[in-house]
Amino acid sequence: MTPILKWQGKVYLFLIFFISLITFVVGDGFSIPSLKDWVFVYFLVAAVLLLSYFSVHLPPKDNSFSMDSAIYLAVMFLYGISLALKVLLISILVEFLYKRKMAWWKHLFNLSMYSLMIAGAFYSFLYFGGQIGEIKTDYLFPYMVSLLVYFLINISLIFMFFVFLERVYKGAFNFGVLFEAMVSYCVTLILSLVLAILLDKERYFGLFLFTVLVIILSVVFRKFIVLYELVSNRANKDHLTGLYNHGFFKEALKEQFSDCKLLKQPLTLAFLDLDDFKKYNDRNGHLQGDRLLTFFGKLLQKAVGGTNFTVARYGGEEFAILMPNTTKEDAYAFLNRLRKEVNDTYFEGVEHIPYRCLSFSCGIAEMEKDMYESEELIHRADQALYYAKAQGKNNVQLYDKHNMCLDEIKFKQDLEALEQQVKFFLSKDVYTYRHSKRVFKYALEFGSRLDELTDHERQTLILGALIHDIGKIEVPRDILNKRGKLEKHEWEIIKKHVTWGREIVAAEKRFDDLLPLVELHHERYDGKGYPYGLKGEEIPKLARILCIIDSFDAMTTERPYQPTKTFEEALEEIERCAGTQFDPVYAAKFIAFVREHYLPLAEMQQLN
């Protein structure tokens, strides 16, 4: 879809167009050459258009670059800026005539940008001792400088244009992207010098030979890309349904999750599970069951046609649809409509299963700003799917934390299981065991007073508080119990406990909700924490709350490497660090909670 050009973009466009007009006047780009020169210009224009069409494609990401810049540079090196600008102008005009569907401002932008790139490269070439009319292979410095200027002007103009379109995001111009662009421009410089030498020796035949060689390269690389995609598809596609497989989907989700988070765009994930597939298989046989999976896969593929959705077979009879730039409400409307269409689509044998029609259950989850990895989105969509099946199947459910509450029996079972894990500290580090129990107690009491938390969130906070330091089981005993300040390398080992803890807790799928608390309770609100340097609301809410509770207990209990603070001193520290280390909202609530429920008791103990 062509982006809408806002007024800022139009101002920027006409500004660089005005500068390019000056370039044409100063560079004599509007002068009328002789008839002989016109013929050569037309041949050059034809070559530019051909090479623009036959771009060179490179695997693995099918990046491509056009060799038209090689022609502009070669012409500039041999004949000067005037002829290069004429070739550019006529090429853009011809392109405008046969690419009528392309937005007018894109043609204008290309003309302006290339003219400024050519002018910048030309004058820098002259400034650093380059001479027009011959190629001096013994002194390549001016050529390299002109290419660098050509490249920098290109990058700068495009970057500014995206700024005005408001489409620039963190990481858009990272080192990897710039390096790839620079490599392609270096290839362009080499080929421009080759072309200039050919033009100098045999003007028309040299141009013909260069164009044919580049076209052959383009065709060969396109064939290579086709073969690469064929092999890639075999690795990425499910052989039964023809949809993407589990592995490809997980990689696509990670990439989309990262992009949508940076761009602050919605991203929705849906899990679909064919209802009563086992019963269908048992009655009709596995071969017919495979035919049903293939049939359903084709239905899904047809349903997402014309969209940017990615559909995959996630495993067994479970399918996944990844929907970038889509809210959960739009996804719900789309999938509920699809569910009804599937109900009305007959497939042999479905009349013998409970609903007597083809049906699926579906769970939907949308990425939220406090999510820090794609696994959280998968977990929520999975929970919503289980809820849909619990509601009687053949329905679509949005993830709602109010509906995903753990029952009390399961909560107690999980609590007992985690307490057994924490007891390992009794033989290694009694302090960490007692610290974990105190943080658990604070979380239990403070969480019960936070009305904005659901029951599920309260239970998650309590369980996460109990197990948050489990990774310290991997830290050597001499570091855990060291008296005095830790050395730098020892501190680096201590910091790893959050990732070690994540690995331990992730071993059991039922504790997936606890992973953010275990891994992120040392992130800081100002982005200076670890392990990822997340900032503000990028940090999950419960991890922000746990950070405050954990820090409070660490400050108010005796530790071998730091002095103990009173409750009042610790609260003053939390208040001072609100907005930097701690979430200011929950810091204020925790301070009020401690002042109300713990300070009176602490003062009484001091009096006694």
From TrEMBL:
Domain GGDEF, chain residue ranges per copy: 265-401
Q: Which branch of life, at top level?
A: Bacteria
InterPro entries in alphabetical order: GGDEF_dom, HD/PDEase_dom, HD_GYP_dom, Nucleotide_cyclase, Rev_trsase/Diguanyl_cyclase
Q: What UniProt keywords apply to this chain's record, in alphabetical order? A: Membrane, Transmembrane, Transmembrane helix
Stored Gene3D superfamilies? 3.30.70.270, Hypothetical protein af1432
HD-GYP domain location, by residue? 410-606
Annotated TM spans: 12-32, 39-58, 70-96, 108-128, 140-165, 177-198, 204-225
**SMART domains noted in UniProt:** GGDEF, HDc
Pfam families xref list: GGDEF, HD_5
The record's annotation in PANTHER family points to:
CYCLIC DI-GMP PHOSPHODIESTERASE PA4108, CYCLIC DI-GMP PHOSPHODIESTERASE PA4108-RELATED
Q: What is this protein called?
A: HD family phosphohydrolase
